[in-house]
TrEMBL record, chain A:
<dbReference type="InterPro" id="IPR039914">
    <property type="entry name" value="SRP9-like"/>
</dbReference>
<dbReference type="Pfam" id="PF05486">
    <property type="entry name" value="SRP9-21"/>
</dbReference>
<dbReference type="GO" id="GO:0005786">
    <property type="term" value="C:signal recognition particle, endoplasmic reticulum targeting"/>
</dbReference>
<feature type="domain" description="SRP9">
    <location>
        <begin position="4"/>
        <end position="116"/>
    </location>
</feature>
<dbReference type="GO" id="GO:0006614">
    <property type="term" value="P:SRP-dependent cotranslational protein targeting to membrane"/>
</dbReference>
<feature type="region of interest" description="Disordered">
    <location>
        <begin position="142"/>
        <end position="167"/>
    </location>
</feature>
<protein>
    <recommendedName>
        <fullName>SRP9 domain-containing protein</fullName>
    </recommendedName>
</protein>
<dbReference type="InterPro" id="IPR039432">
    <property type="entry name" value="SRP9_dom"/>
</dbReference>
<feature type="region of interest" description="Disordered">
    <location>
        <begin position="32"/>
        <end position="79"/>
    </location>
</feature>
From TrEMBL, chain B:
<protein>
    <recommendedName>
        <fullName>Signal recognition particle subunit SRP14</fullName>
    </recommendedName>
</protein>
<feature type="compositionally biased region" description="Basic residues">
    <location>
        <begin position="124"/>
        <end position="143"/>
    </location>
</feature>
<feature type="region of interest" description="Disordered">
    <location>
        <begin position="121"/>
        <end position="143"/>
    </location>
</feature>
<comment type="subunit">
    <text>Component of a fungal signal recognition particle (SRP) complex that consists of a 7SL RNA molecule (scR1) and at least six protein subunits: SRP72, SRP68, SRP54, SEC65, SRP21 and SRP14.</text>
</comment>
<dbReference type="GO" id="GO:0005786">
    <property type="term" value="C:signal recognition particle, endoplasmic reticulum targeting"/>
</dbReference>
<keyword id="KW-0694">RNA-binding</keyword>
<comment type="function">
    <text>Component of the signal recognition particle (SRP) complex, a ribonucleoprotein complex that mediates the cotranslational targeting of secretory and membrane proteins to the endoplasmic reticulum (ER).</text>
</comment>
<comment type="similarity">
    <text>Belongs to the SRP14 family.</text>
</comment>
<dbReference type="InterPro" id="IPR003210">
    <property type="entry name" value="Signal_recog_particle_SRP14"/>
</dbReference>
């Protein structure tokens, strides 16, 4: 029962499995929000207390870092995809806890659904805008400012400020 | 449970309810399953001799087949040891939904499906870019 590391890998493997066994393969997606059990809460509280104790003893870095779970009773949410073929026993899984991935994953489910129906898998439907790479614009620094000979270490002050603003 | 599939539209309203139910409760699971629909479709499966001739007949069906989509929540029962934190949960009945998506409606279905799921899965972590950057800076100053 392997967990695949990336959703792309999961998709590729699932697609291959579906091509091989289209009638028996099923895809289950599971969205679960779990409240921690009482023992888990106790553990989290103990951990938080330990952190607090350590922070008070080692005073120099006074950063009040928020512990990973601010509230020990905070539920954990996961979204898990599983492709399973009962005949061959193949099982492919992928799990995430990021909301940003859901749209893309459902898009992939759609593509696999097309494969199930016996259609060509075709293009991804909705996840087209998944990688919104902002086109890097390191342009025209010299155009506005006076033509300075480029020094290796120290850049023109004005130019640098501009760069920061853009980022 | 063949026979009691609902229409796609009804499925979506019920699915939204299911997610809403989950959100209100604060915990719980939603299962979504998709599978090729091969029974009860009026498409006659090839005769056994033909299957013997071509054991991989199902990899290239003559006509596109519909896809069956299920959705369900988890059944939950009360935990023992009431009173401790984390043990206050109620008995919940299982809700099952299922619908059949015809091949020509798949694309439209999945667009709506994605919307419904994105809206429903509010418990997942949102992007926290700014925080991460801050953390990195802190680490740098420490080291």
């Amino acid at each position: 029962m392997p967990y695949l590391k990336t959703s792309t890998e999961w998709y590729e493997q699932s697609s291959l499995l579906l091509k091989a066994r289209p009638t028996t393969t099923r895809i289950t997606s599971k969205y679960s929000v779990l409240k921690p059990s009482s023992s888990k809460i106790a553990k989290r509280e103990a951990y938080a207390a330990k952190r607090a104790a350590r922070a008070s003893t080692t005073s120099p870095p006074p950063q009040s870092q928020a512990p990973p779970q601010a509230n020990p009773e905070e539920p954990t949410a996961t979204f898990r995809l599983k492709t399973y073929d009962p005949v061959s026993g193949t099982c492919l899984q992928y799990e995430t806890n990021k909301a940003a991935e859901v749209g893309r994953l459902i898009g992939r489910l759609g593509m696999l659904g097309r494969g199930m129906a016996g259609l060509e898998e075709g293009e991804e439907l909705s996840g087209a805008a998944e990688n919104s790479h902002t086109v890097e614009q390191d342009v025209v620094m010299g155009g506005t400012s006076t033509p300075i000979e480029q020094k290796p270490a120290a850049g023109g002050g004005g130019g640098k400020k501009k760069k920061k603003g853009k980022k | 449970m063949p026979g009691d599939h609902m229409s796609n539209d009804e499925f979506f309203t019920q699915l939204t309810n299911l997610f809403e139910h989950n959100r209100k409760k604060g915990h719980g699971t939603v299962y979504l399953t998709q599978k090729r629909l091969t029974y009860d479709t009026g498409i006659t499966p090839p005769s056994p001799t033909k299957v013997l001739d071509d054991p991989l007949w199902d990899t290239h069906p003559e006509n596109p087949l519909p896809v069956l989509v299920h959705a369900a929540n988890n059944k939950s029962s009360k935990r023992e040891g009431k009173g401790k934190p984390g043990n206050e949960r109620e008995n919940v009945e299982k809700i099952k939904l299922s619908t059949v998506v015809q091949p020509d409606k798949l694309d439209a279905f999945y667009v709506r499906y994605a919307e419904a799921c994105k809206a429903g899965m509010g418990g997942l972590k949102k992007r926290e870019r700014k925080k991460k950057k801050k953390d990195k800076k802190k680490k740098k100053t420490e080291g």
